[in-house]
Amino acid sequence: MNKLINKFFDDISPLFIIGFLVISSFVVNINAADEGTEVESVTIIGTKDDVKDLPGTGTVITNADLQKAMDTDIHKILSAVPGVYFRTEDGYGLRPNISIRGTSIDRSAKVTLMEDGILIAPAPYTSSSAYYFPTTGRINSVEVLKGPSSISQGPSTIGGAINLISTPIPEVNSGRFVQEIGENGMMRTHAYYGMNSGNLGALIEVHEHQTDGFDSIANVGGDTGFDKSDVMLKARYEAGNHSVTLKMVEVDESSDQSYVGLSQQSFMANPRKRYGMTQYDVMNNDGDQMSLTYAGSFNNFDVVASTWSNDYHRDWFKVDKANNSKTGGVSNSINGVIEAANSGNAIAQGILDDQFVDQPKITAAEIEEYWIKGTWYFNKRLGELKYRLLAITPVAKEVGQDDGELIPLCWIWYPDARKVLNDAKVFNTRNSSKPISYDNMLNSRRFSAMIYKEENVYEDREVKNYIKEDALKQLLESERIKNVILDYELDMWNN
Predict the structure, then answer these.
(1) Which of 15, 171, 451, 456 gives 20 to 30 Å between its CA and that of 395?
(2) Nearest 5°: phi and psi at 255?
(3) pTM assigned to the model
(4) Distances from the Cα of 470 to the Cα of 69, 396, 465, 475, 483, angstroms
């Protein structure tokens, strides 16, 4: 919970905070005896009695129904609504695939999704497929519209419309706290507190939901669940038959989900298995939503006007898209191997089961060189040319090959490796009684090396790319580059 609150106040916009403080000050100073008339502005159907007046069909899932179901999966909540179909994707309802009256089910593309009557898709008019979906665990009730009644609700109402209604501002100061713990490392925290004083009311709500997931990653292990945080702030001002409601939502989610499936043989053996390479699959997204709604009742008509913004960011690494080239018309991606296994290829199935995967260990004996990357800069305060180390990597020949080109194994950000290098000592050939650390040796450049690459020169180039198959000339070019760099310092004082 502390992590969630800290992130909320670190990332939230200044406008969010200022608006909350201003509204809070009004709540404190308003005359509690000044009574207003509440104007409902977030529902489409309103109550179950209003359903009969709709030109189409509609269903209201009340808060009592949700409390009875005790579920946060929108698929399971909607399963009792006639004409609504769905296909589960992650098992938790984070990214629903909803169909109404037989429309396309992928990403609920033909169904308008709303929260409090506001469109929730990041791009509802150009790409209605909703990667973002409200946290169902904090939803107070749900409205489902089918037929002509849904036409007015948005651009993608071929199937219908679904309106999720958030927790309302209470009539009296009150709150709720729910803590749930379950299997697979599941934890859910839901808390809110609302205030109502005269013409002003406010509500703050926090929802944190996380789990390790119910699938298992073969050989390597790891989580297959998610961690989703949701913070909502709502404030309302009422004056007679008029009201203005400000609502702000901040969402942060990290999901270890994968688009890689299983071969038929693997599925029959263990449907809850995931292949080892899917450990790298991860989806990170965050979003900020803000809406301002005016509702007014006049003599002969009612007016509801809303303006909103939705800022959503998604970063999804999908291992099924890695190496998606083709050899001989067959895809080299993991999906290509699965397809081959389903066609009866025993070797492909063996690869998926790690039967033909050699996993040799690389020891220090295989490391032939170390490459370092750094930058030269002029320290104006000291009046000296300095060198800053940026990264280091061990270099070895490809595993299983005695001959061939040396390749870097992994680049390590030097500040992260510095503590280890500082603790490890190097034998000092000049003074055996006083060893030095690897960090000291590297930063003082007490080693023999050759410059093999210049960055930001002719779009970055290695020496061997323009001086080919001549080791002596390559070494001389390295020394020339060193002298050019060192001459910079002298030139600064002489010119």
Answers:
(1) 456
(2) -125, 130
(3) 0.64
(4) 75, 21, 11, 9, 20
Rounded distance between C-alpha atoms, residue 74 and residue 85, angstroms:
11
Neighbours of 53 (CB within 10 A): 10
**What's the sign of the alpha-carbon dihedral 36, 118, 75, 93?**
negative
Q: Look at residue 337 and give its three-state secondary structure.
A: helix
Q: Count other Cβ atoms within 10 Å, centred on residue 29.
A: 10
Residues 6+ apart with CB under 8 A from 271: 262
Q: Give which of 235, 237, 229, 228 is closest to 256, Cα–Cα.
A: 228
Q: What is the DSSP letter of 447?
A: S
Q: For the purposes of burial, counting CB atoms within 10 Å of the CB of 76, is it exposed (0-12), middle (13-18) or buried (19 or more)? A: middle
- What whole-number distance in Å separates Cα of residue 267 and Cα of residue 89? 16
What SS3 state is found at 41? Answer: coil
Which residue has better confidence, 386 or 99?
A: 99
Residues, the chain: 495
Chain segment 209-242, per-residue pLDDT in tens: 999 999 999 888 889 999 999 999 999 999 988 9
pLDDT digits over 279-302, tens only? Answer: 889 999 999 999 999 999 888 888
Structural domains of the chain, with CATH: 2-36+176-320 (no CATH), 48-166 (2.170.130.10), 323-352 (no CATH), 364-494 (no CATH)
Can you tell me the distance from the alpha carbon of 408 to that of 392, in angstroms, rounded to the nearest whole number? 9
Is the distance from CB of 58 to CB of 143 less than 8 angstroms?
Answer: yes
d(CA 119, CA 308): 9
Give per-residue pLDDT as tens, 173-183: 999 999 999 99
Placement of tokens 């651009």 in the chain: 155
Strands 111-115 and 160-166: parallel
CB 228 within 8 Å of CB 206: no
